[in-house]
Write a structure and sequence with these properties.
There is one protein chain. The protein is 18% helix and 21% strand. It is built from 3 helices and 7 strands; from the N terminus they run βββββββααα. The strands form 3 sheets. The chain has a 3-stranded antiparallel beta sheet with strand order 3-4-5, with no helix packed on it. About 10% of the residues have low confidence.
Length: 170
């Protein structure tokens, strides 16, 4: 299967840019970061993040030696409640995953939106693909949720506000 889309890197909009010092055109580097997904990433929800390897300079000085560096995502253990399964799951997550869960209006909708499309051979979700062993619940349970009208499309509009006492109608 193809690797999940990049999380913290976007390709440049233009192949060339102006150098502000000399006003000459220069090429923009278009090199994506190589990301390594360790086996531990399959046990949690990392939100498309992985290990990035590279170099850093000693003492933040470009004239000093280069040292190998591995940037790792910060991992947290959180209890996430699943309305479909009606139980709490203790999962290793990153802050980006928690933001994506909030944007999807809940853990179940995040799994359905991101994992449901990638797990069934379809295109990955808009945020990132679910590159983990988590899979969406069986279709019978998913169908029951959408028949009750509590699907993700019901959460896009905020609930109507009741008028305050003493305020004019409308």
């Amino acid at each position: 299967s193809p690797p999940p889309p990049a999380v913290h890197w976007r390709p440049p909009e233009r192949p060339r840019d102006l150098d502000p010092a000399t006003w000459r055109r220069r090429r923009v580097q278009d090199v994506p970061l190589p990301i390594y997904y360790p086996p531990e990433s399959q046990e949690g929800l990392w939100g498309g993040e992985g290990l990035v390897t590279g170099f850093r300079y000693a003492h933040n000085d470009k004239l000093s030696t280069r040292l190998k560096k591995v940037w790792r995502p910060q991992l947290y253990y959180r209890q996430l409640y699943s309305e479909i399964l009606d139980r709490r799951l203790t999962v290793t997550v990153t802050m980006r995953t928690l933001d994506l869960i909030d944007a999807a209006f809940g853990f179940d909708f995040y799994i359905l939106k991101v994992g449901g499309q990638a797990g069934r051979g379809g295109p990955p979700g808009p945020a990132c693909s679910l590159a983990t062993a988590f899979s969406p619940p069986p279709d019978a349970q998913v169908g029951a949720v959408f028949q009750t009208g509590h699907g993700p499309e019901a959460h896009h509009a905020p609930p109507p506000r009741s008028p305050r006492p003493g305020s004019p109608p409308g």
